Structure formats: C-alpha cells, structure tokens
Amino acid sequence: MTIAVVDYGSGNLRSAAKALERVCAEAGLEARVVVTDSAADVAKAERIVLPGQGAFRDCWDGLNAVPGMVAALQDAVIARRRPFLGICVGMQLMASVGREHGECPGLDWIPGAVVALAPGDPSLKIPHMGWNELNIAAPEHPVLAGLGTSPHVYFVHSYHFVARQSADVLASVDYGGAVAAIVGRGNMIGTQFHPEKSQAAGLRLLRNFVRWQA
After folding, report:
1. Which entry of 24, 59, 88, 104 is annotated as an active-site residue?
2. Residues near 16 by Cβ (< 8 Å), separated by ≥ 6?
3. Which terminus of the chain has fewer CB atoms gathered within 10 Å of its CB, N or C?
4. Percent of all residues in the chain with a pLDDT value above 90, rounded to a whole number
C-alpha cells in the first residue's frame, strides 16, 4: 500500500509522514509513505493525505500550481473513492469556498464555507491554539474508533469550516461555541486539529485511517 502525502508547498509534511510511518509499522502494515508533488504518484496511491497550514488562498493557489494535482485528486478521491484525509487547511480545502482575505473557491467536496473564528466568549484568543476536548458526534465512524468520548487534541487555527449539512460534522470542539473539528463524507475525512501533534489520540486516528476500508 502506498500513502501519498501531497506536497504543494504548505509545510508541515515531514511530521505528518513520520506519524503515518509510525502507525503503519505499529499496525504491521506493509506500507510506503511518499511525500510527493507528483500528480502521477497521487493517482497511483491507495490512500491520500493533504496537509496544510497558513492561509486558505495561499494553500489553494499552491495546490493549483502543481501540474495536474487538482485533477488527480478529483479522480482519485471522487471518481475512484480512495480514502482521503485532510489536515488543518487541507481539511478546509474540502469546502466549497474559503473567506479568508476575500472569497476563494475550494474543492467543493463537502458543501460549506471556511470563515473566521468568532468565539462567543470575547476572552478567547485568536488563533485558537492548544489542547482541547473533542465532542464526537459519530463514534461509529471507523476512523474515530477507540478515541473515547472526549479525547484531547491539538489545534492551531483562526478560521473554521461551517458545513452546510450537520451530518458532515463528525466531531466538534467548544471554543466559545461549537466549531467543526472533524468533517467527513463517504471516503473522505478531515481534521481541523493536527493528529500528528495530538499524541495518543492523534496516532489512534491515523492508525484507523491507514486501515480504513472506505
């Protein structure tokens, strides 16, 4: 099995790849984790991971600057239903539109918009940074198996995904109001937090993902 970690200049690739290598080894899976900017590699991969950090538009522009990458993702994830994991801005790019520094289209895989965090509690700082408890709405999802009812995970973000359909939000976090922490539909799942930085809970989620038969 090959797991492609998409390199489009967003940074934070090596830590995600190392965490995936670790969970594959611990699970006894014969898997190759490839950090790649090749659309051909993504087209051939059995699983795809899209990390991301920074501004939505910068990540969108970076993804589109890689020859053939958006088309390869569309074919692999939507047409051929390969298991897909988006992390942080990689998760946000699954939305229809991002509204950071103006309006910018997204992949439109899960209907919704990425908008600025606006906590109901004015004492809460932006960006939302640090460890917070997940409220899991879909404990039956295979990628969330074994996480428990309220695992703690690590966030760093100033914008969040507002899904059009509540069923697409698999877990939330309370940050002056409910904020989507995990979204998913079909063979796709995305985390606003960083599983590769979230210790046991994050590694468990990644282990579930590499074994997921979507």
Report:
1. 88
2. 5, 49, 51, 87, 196
3. N
4. 93
